[in-house]
Amino acid sequence: MKASSLILTSCIGSLSAANLMLDFGPTTVASPYETLSPAHHAGTVISTETSWNTLSSSADRSDLVFSDGSSAVGITLNLGQESTSGNGIISFSTELTKLTLAGTGGGAAGQQSLLGTGSIYGSDSSSTAAGRDGVFGDGSGGAGSAIGMRVDGLAAGSYTIYLMGRNTNSNVGSLPMNLFAAVGADSSTFDFSSLSPTVQSNPGYATASYAGEFTSFTSGDNFVSIDVTVTEGQSLFLVSDGADAAETRGFLNMVQIVEVPEPSTASLALVAGALLLRRRRL
């Protein structure tokens, strides 16, 4: 490759945002599922960025990597849940204990399984898709705990947060999740009781009328995105809380924290990309 092309390629690479991809549950994302995610689908994470952080324990994490595989130096993650179910306060000293949601796809008679050819949850029970397995709160469906996370050390700027929260062991009708994202000072607790949620409706479908709905990412149905702005030193807080009387436990399958480029940076990336494409065609 000529020197000028190398410079342009380097320029584009250096403009890649610092994105974090978090996969909850016991299974590590692997081929061919690394890019099966809302952010990849939206094009806000490029297809060559495939490094996921597997979160299969409640331990605090300081060894995270960005989606391009580089070390996320200075960024830490803490998980927690309500110490008292339904009180609307996440305690980061209350560890998650339900860490092995398998993502069976559900077995309700007459209902379409979440798993299948082309599904965003994967083709079968051996799928390593980020959206298949997960973690959830303590308690029972009707009296369960919300779960949450705190991320410290993010660079100041704007972010789009993509979340998937669903009980993927169930394929019954709608069991929605209330999902929250906010920023604030570092704290050992997070009170979300007065915040307005973004709802993931999690519809189910009768097999007889199923029309491939599980094969596409649909905002509000099987994922949500929330925009936040982080200032220097602020923490990012995320919460999942069951929104139906039959399912009050919070579930998380995956989270993507995607940095929104500054307008000038995005423009430079477009120019560099156009120039590189033109050179390759010549």
UniProtKB/TrEMBL annotation:
To which species is this protein native? Haloferula luteola
**Lineage of the native species?**
Bacteria, Pseudomonadati, Verrucomicrobiota, Verrucomicrobiia, Verrucomicrobiales
Q: What is this protein called?
A: PEP-CTERM protein-sorting domain-containing protein
Entry keywords, A to Z: Signal
* Signal peptide feature range: 1-17
